[in-house]
Design a protein that fits this description.
The complex is a heterodimer of chains A (302) and B (136).
Chain A: E1 2-8, E2 11-17, H1 23-40, H2 48-54, E3 59-62, H3 68-80, H4 90-96, H5 108-114, H6 121-124, E4 125-128, E5 131-134, H7 146-160, E6 166-170, E7 173-177, E8 182-188, E9 191-201, E10 205-210, E11 215-216, E12 219-220, E13 223-224, E14 229-230, E15 234-241, H8 244-253, H9 260-263, E16 268-274, E17 278-281, E18 287-289, E19 299-300
Antiparallel strand pairs in A: 1-2, 2-6, 3-5, 4-5, 6-7, 7-10, 8-9, 9-18, 10-15, 11-12, 13-14, 15-16, 16-17
Chain B: E1 3-4, E2 6-7, H1 12-19, E3 45-53, E4 58-67, E5 70-78, H2 83-94, E6 98-99, E7 103-104, E8 112-114, H3 121-135
Parallel strand pairs in B: 2-3
Antiparallel strand pairs in B: 3-4, 4-5
Classes of the chains: A alpha+beta (302), B alpha+beta (136).
Chain lengths: 302, 136
């Protein structure tokens, strides 16, 4: 196996391939990730997202044509979760302190003010294919599915380069191709050195979302788009789907709706950990969950 | 020596089937026998029941722990022999959230990890900075 490691969009990437990556495949991979970041990053002032945020009276913004599937997915997830998954939570994240400067300080007055004029993906952005039209300032955050989108993009470029045996890992968002299944440890959210189960991944993508680590001063980064408030019912989700973008987006959607609400709309398997630490999974999940055999009970006295 | 309380309660199984899908599995009204009053409550402890259903018939074992009238833990053990039946029982068991034990990474063989460690570097750096400031 040949390995390529690099840092991009704030994540550690590792690409393992059955045969060494030729230079003509390797260089465009990293360039395309950087190009995506240059358009969609909330953390740089020269991005399209920053420009959209600055246009107080709105405007028309063209995104790359190949990113249309990403916005199609957001449309579907927004509808399926009745507005809970909303890429306009960028503003809420900023107000809670998850901003370009990483102040991690929330602004209660601004939060109160914004709650009166909350942006909504359906009504505040009119999208015609790859052109987004706004009428006031919006802060786009493609955090729910953007990394999965990039993992798929890399996988597609590997396939185009004639490589059909690989693992693309962007900080735990994975896509696998090839004959040998991959054993993926499902990290215990509360115990970094432990796993709660193992997924067998073969020819599909697996993405995880957890709220315990990307958390600050009582907040975390999975926000309900309808309220701007961090979710409470779940602490971690894992989703296996045919593509990483869907797996990534669904891993976020599961924080807001029961898996049954998404079952007829997407083809996926899931594992989730509830806020009380219990875990359940879809019937078709391929792998193992380390369930406790222990039954808690009181003893009789005397 | 304390004795672990184990009882069999036939009516708990249907009650449990009704409760699946709810986050809080309170055994209230559904567990009542006909004619009983609504004030009926069950003693704390562990209850095990093997349910029988279907024409073949098929069995499934459910063990629940009760505390203050609330189910605090549930185990479902499928033991069907017919493949389709086993599949259904496993699907049912999977739908019940259960307590997990974290296994140390030293005890398992995995190729990759997915979960919290995927936290972006920029965020981790910011958190570290806050911790350092707080420690001053």
């Amino acid at each position: 196996m040949s390995k390529l490691n690099f840092d991009a969009i704030g994540s550690r990437w590792e690409i393992e391939t059955g045969k060494p990556l030729p230079d003509e495949v390797r260089a465009p991979l990293i360039a395309s990730i950087e190009a995506f970041d240059g358009i969609f990053s909330r953390f740089r002032t020269d991005s399209l997202v920053a420009e959209m945020s600055r246009c107080e009276d709105g405007g028309r913004f063209e995104v790359p044509a190949e990113s249309v599937p990403l916005f199609d997915l957001y449309d579907r997830l927004h509808a399926a979760t009745r507005g809970a998954v909303d890429p306009l939570v960028g503003r809420d994240l900023e107000l809670l302190g998850y901003d370009a400067e990483y102040t991690l300080l929330h602004d209660p007055v601004a939060i109160a003010r914004y709650s009166q004029q909350r942006r909504n993906w359906k009504t505040d952005v009119q999208r015609d294919a790859n052109v987004l039209a706004t009428r006031r300032s919006v802060v786009l955050d493609v955090g729910a599915a953007g990394k999965g989108y990039l993992v798929d993009l890399v996988a597609a470029k590997l396939r185009d380069g004639g490589i059909d045996d690989f693992v693309v890992d962007a900080g735990g968002d994975l896509v696998h191709a090839g004959p040998t299944p991959l054993r993926v440890g499902l990290e215990h959210p509360a115990d970094p050195g432990a796993v709660v189960g193992i997924a067998d991944l073969k020819g599909r993508a697996l993405c995880a979302s957890a709220v315990n680590r990307r958390a600050w001063r009582g907040f975390h980064h999975v926000l309900d788009g309808r309220t701007g408030v961090p979710t409470k019912d779940l602490v971690a989700t894992w989703v296996i789907a045919n593509d990483a973008m869907s797996a990534d987006g669904l891993a976020t959607a599961l924080f807001f709706v029961h898996p049954d609400a998404l079952r007829h709309l997407f083809q996926f398997e899931w594992v989730r950990m509830l806020a009380d630490g219990r875990v359940d999974h879809s019937p078709g999940f391929k792998g193992e969950i380390f369930y406790s055999e222990r039954i808690t009970s009181c003893h009789e006295t005397g | 020596m304390p004795r672990n309380r184990m009882r069999t309660l036939r009516n708990l199984v249907p009650a449990f089937f009704i409760s699946v899908g709810l986050h809080t599995l309170a055994v209230g009204a559904p567990a009542q026998r006909p004619g009983e009053t609504r004030s009926t409550s069950y003693a704390d402890g562990v209850y095990t029941a093997t349910g029988q259903y279907g024409g073949q018939p098929s069995f499934i074992t459910v063990t629940v722990a009760l505390k203050d009238g609330v189910v605090t833990s549930v185990q479902v053990r499928p033991h069907a022999t017919v493949p389709r039946s086993l599949e259904l029982q496993r699907a049912f068991a999977a739908a019940v959230p259960k307590v997990v034990v974290g296994k140390p990474l030293s005890e398992v063989r995995v190729d990759k990890l997915a979960g919290s460690s995927g936290t972006p570097k920029g965020f981790n750096d910011a958190i570290d900075k806050i911790r350092q400031e707080a420690a001053r």
